[in-house]
Specification:
With 367 residues, the chain is an alpha/beta fold. It has 15 helices and 13 strands. The strands form 2 sheets. Strands 3-2-1-4-5-6-7 form a 7-stranded parallel β-sheet, with helices on both faces.
Length: 367
């Protein structure tokens, strides 16, 4: 039921990382302190199976979406266009004062474009990130969304500087990283030993890996290089890999061996945080996990040619390696595994764990 005269915020989310990010803001928005704000959650259905979607809503306490657009999979154009068509109808019904979008997915872009054509404001959480890689779908989504947003919530100084260079500095606010908020909150709630025991694991006796990015999964050479590299080091230490549906499909299609790798189903956010906190090393192509590894002070090897989270590269906490060369991947994994983390300086680059509160306070000041 609508709150009369309340500020109405339409939150648009559709992928697992967005569920985590939005949960930090929604948890505060739906407290008694902000009874004069009404949040309407729209789930685009970009991630739609239970392990990729429903489980996260239940676990993170995200308000049940008032609308589920059920767009499913498709090309970037198909998915974005379908979200826009369905979301436009929702905006007509709800007449929000503000549309709030997160990250850099097709749901982000679609929400931004709909907002730009309606009499409401647009706020972008995680604004200002840049890989400077032309044609990268996430980069296109970020740049377009930032260019039309009324409020740009930046997680880092680097993000602020990027927007200043693009002439968007006046609308940019440094608030810290909402994913750091979430990491701190759930790390304090979790019994990691119990979670690890359920997988037959002990602290610092395994590596945690995730591979899901389309540029890796859709390239047979890259995918072979990655899994062959993982197998090469699996004799040194156990590798635990929650297998993303896209990756599973391509591995089966290409008959790539998974021997020596402990494959598990996709896990909940809280379980992932426990697995992360207990790992000796993270191996990933995920933007979110490389950053969470930094939060947890666990060394990371990111199998990509670039990263938006350049702060993680400082002092060797995160290392980039191209998927193009197996020997380089193996060498990077082995050297990082033996990294002396006790003597590696660590900088607090992602705020103090109150980004969500700063976001809400800033919205209230500007509406």
């Amino acid at each position: 039921m609508s709150k009369s005269n309340a500020l109405k915020i339409l939150t648009v989310i559709g992928a697992r990382p967005q569920f985590v990010k939005s949960s930090t803001v929604s948890r505060i928005l739906n407290s008694k302190k902000f009874d004069d704000i009404e949040e309407v959650v729209v789930h685009t259905g970009q991630h739609y199976d239970d392990n990729m979607s429903g489980l996260f809503f239940r676990e993170l306490g995200i308000p049940t979406p008032l609308y589920n657009l059920n767009v499913g999979s498709g090309s970037h154009a198909q998915q974005t266009g379908l979200i826009m068509t369905k979301l436009e109808s929702v905006v007509e019904i709800e007449s929000p004062d503000l549309i709030l979008v997160y990250g850099d997915t097709n749901s982000t872009l679609a929400g931004a474009l709909v907002a730009a054509k309606k009499p409401c404001k647009l706020a972008h959480v995680e604004a200002g990130l840049r890989s400077f890689r032309k044609g990268m779908p996430e980069e296109v989504n970020r740049v377009v969304t930032d260019s039309i947003s009324d409020i740009l919530f930046c997680p880092t100084v680097t993000a602020i500087n990027n927007l200043v260079l693009e002439g968007r500095g006046d609308n940019a606010l440094l608030v810290g990283d909402v994913m750091y908020d979430s990491y701190v909150y759930y790390s304090n709630k979790m019994n990691s030993d119990e979670v690890l025991s359920g997988f037959g694991l002990q602290h610092d006796n395994y590596l945690l890996a995730t591979i899901h990015r389309a540029e890796n999964t859709d390239n047979p050479k890259y995918l072979y290089n990655i899994f062959s590299s993982l197998q090469s080091i699996s004799t040194d230490m156990r590798i635990v890999l929650p297998l993303h549906p896209r990756t599973k499909k391509m591995v089966e299609k290409l008959a790539i061996s998974l021997n020596g790798i402990s494959i598990i189903d996709p896990v909940s956010y809280q379980t992932m945080i426990s697995l992360l906190n207990g790992a000796s090393l993270v191996i990933t192509d995920s933007g979110g996990l490389q950053k969470e590894a930094y939060f947890a002070r666990v060394p990371c090897v990111t199998i990509r040619d670039e990263t938006e989270w350049v702060e993680t590269l400082e002092n060797g906490w995160n290392r980039l390696v191209s998927p193009n060369n197996k020997d380089n991947i193996v060498a990077s994994l082995k050297s990082t595994l033996h990294m002396d983390i006790a003597n590696s300086p660590y900088l607090e680059n992602y705020g103090t764990g109150d980004a969500a509160q700063q976001i809400i306070d800033s919205i209230l000041e500007r509406m």
